[in-house]
Amino acid sequence: MSVTAREESTPSVAATLRSGSLGTADIAFFVISAAAPLTVMAGVAPLAVLLGGIGAPAGYLIAGITLAVFAVGFTTMSRHIRSGGAFYAYITRGLGRPVGIGAALLALIGYNGMEIGVYGLLGSAGRDTAKALFGVDVPWLPIALAGLLLIGYGGYRSIEFGAKVLGVLLVAETGILVLLAGGVLVKGGAHGLSGASFAPGHVLVSGTAVVLAFAFAAFTGFESTVIYRREARDPERTVPRATYVAVAFLGLFYAFCVWIVIQAFGNDEVIAAAAKDPGGLFFSAITSYVGGWAADLMHVFIVTSIIASLLAFHNAINRYALALAEEGVLAKSLGTVHPRHRSPYTAGIAQTVLGLVVVVGFWAAGADPYNQLLLWVNTPGMIGLFALQLLAAIAVPCYFRKVRHDEGTLRTVVAPTVAAVLLATAIGLVITHIDLFTGASSTVNTLLIVIAPAVFVAGLGLAWWLRRERPAVYAEFAAEPAE
């Protein structure tokens, strides 16, 4: 403790992220919170049921298994790479600096897109909650701006503070879903409990492709465990454990909750109920099986679920920006760490300002907070993160071919190769069904699809420029930190 205090009070010593701060549970809280389980279930799962039928729960299990296979090679590589750059560091080691720099820009756009768009969801959900609980109409912009300030403050504080906040919020949002599950299980559902959702006849249908597209999107951000490596306790063990915990929890919990809501209405009635009011499916179920007070709580916890997701993504973005500033790719000022909180606070301020510009810009244009700010900004971010996962899966066997190691072939070749094929399939499913995510015109959808590859190509151009104009920065990009 005395050493930490002396370091913080000595101006000549630059502050760094606080190592040894996060355990497995802390990192898992960040990752699971980023996925926003309650928001995904109440807001998106009804569409999966409507379009994919009662076999929808199996789609979430399939997505979870796919990402668990990806995690095998991903976490194996995490034992060999200590960089704070996560995705781009892994990709650089396996596929070379140009691809790695392209991945770095793609990561910035991907994570920023996933976070900033969600301020539209916060404004929309906050407005709906105020209307449902108090009967008042509140403009969405003040809610979104309040969220920006709150998230900015959370990122400014220490990582331990963020972990504690996310722990509380995650317990609340999962707790309300467990409460719904308890009510349905105790009462035996609408017509008794059924396992038909997992029967091949209901899983192997054309609508399952749509379910898988939604399901893969529901896991977005799970791989950010490695971003916290520098702050983790015993990262060689903590990071892989947190990754597997996050994937297992999300896959099983999603499948269970979707199955529960199907039981609440019955196999024959749930699709009609979802078609009539998809946004109210979970609220109707919890009102019937638990009570109106629980539906009111669900409204509140959806808002806190969104806040938790925003804070988790904000912390991940800040650490990516910090790593790139330390690499010399971004402005050096973004690499400043707060001397007391040990947070990358200048990167956090910059990210908050960027969010403010985008949110206010959409508001000034008269855009809808959900249909446009959320969906149009989130979608290219989601595609970008899927592309990063694919590149990382391809990078694993390439990396282990270059270095001496004692890892098994299953971990270094088989699992990442299988994951790459499955992830490429997932990307194809999302792009093929992008209209279901955006509800936009074909022109808008085409634009949203090309953003991620365009950013990656721009990154390749940046790599060419750095190699020519700043060779020292290029040569040291994603290098291992000194012991």
From TrEMBL:
Location in the cell: Membrane
CC per GO annotation: membrane
Q: Which domain of life is it from?
A: Bacteria
Instruction: Tell me any Pfam family this protein matches.
Output: AA_permease
Which biological process terms from the Gene Ontology are attached to this UniProt entry? transmembrane transport
State the coiled-coil residue ranges.
Answer: none
Keywords (A to Z) from UniProt = Membrane, Transmembrane, Transmembrane helix
Where are the bilayer-spanning segments? 27-52, 58-78, 99-122, 134-153, 165-186, 198-222, 243-266, 286-313, 345-365, 377-400, 412-434, 446-466
Residue stretches making up the Amino acid permease/ SLC12A domain = 28-471
How does the UniProt record describe the way this protein sits in the membrane? Answer: Multi-pass membrane protein
Q: What is this protein called?
A: Amino acid permease
